[in-house]
Write a structure and sequence with these properties.
protein phosphatase; cytoplasm; Protein-Tyrosine Phosphatase, Chain A; MAP kinase tyrosine/serine/threonine phosphatase activity; transmembrane helix; protein serine/threonine phosphatase activity; alpha/beta; 12% strand
Length: 191
């Protein structure tokens, strides 16, 4: 009896959440950023038909929602904080996992304009070596309403500096390795 009560209670909660979230309804088509990566709103996240037809298997929620929509249908990750940069690597792993398993991931916030856009831009910067301006332009071509707020832009600028610093260090180390290799080759020829 308790199991039936629990099942009915879960179904009611899910339906209530979907009804409440419909006010953030998307246009019915998910915004594809690249193969296996979609960007959207809470309305898009509540559209099970569009999610299934787009082969979405994972949902990354970047909003203050304690309970995921369709908890038994999709893998979920919820990031509720506004300091998104500290969660970038965790988000990237979640996105990569969905792609590795042959599925797709919807990254969404309430409106699909700021928080979720920030995570997707950071992902493009890290995975494809894009600069912030390139990644933002890429996303805006696919989702014109994309507009991270000033606080998220600052986080993305800081992230870009971090990435460029790592890139510079890698280039410097690569050059050092080439110099060492050249010196080693030179001395080996002398023998």
């Amino acid at each position: 009896m308790d199991q039936i009560h629990y099942s009915i209670e879960n179904e009611i909660q899910e339906r209530c959440r979907v009804d409440i979230y419909r006010k953030f309804q998307g246009n019915g088509a998910l915004c594809q950023i690249e193969e296996g990566l979609f960007l959207g709103s809470l309305g898009d996240a509540s559209n099970k038909g569009a999610l299934k037809s787009s082969n979405v298997t994972h949902i990354l929620t970047v909003a203050n929602l304690s309970l995921p929509l369709y908890p038994n249908e999709f893998a979920h990750k919820i990031i509720e904080d506004t300091n998104l940069m500290q969660y970038f690597d965790e988000c990237f792993s979640f996105i990569d996992e969905a792609k590795r398993l042959g599925g797709g991931v919807l990254v969404h916030c309430f409106m699909g304009i700021s928080r979720s856009v920030t995570v997707v831009i950071a992902y493009l910067m890290k995975k494809h070596g894009m600069r912030l301006s390139q990644a933002l332009e890429h996303v805006k071509r696919r989702r014109p309403q994309a507009s991270p707020n000033s606080g998220f832009i600052l986080q993305l600028q800081q992230f870009e500096k971090t990435l460029r610093g790592k890139e510079y260090e890698k280039t410097r180390l690569d050059r050092s390795a080439l110099v060492c290799q050249s010196i080693f080759s030179f001395f080996n020829k002398k023998r």
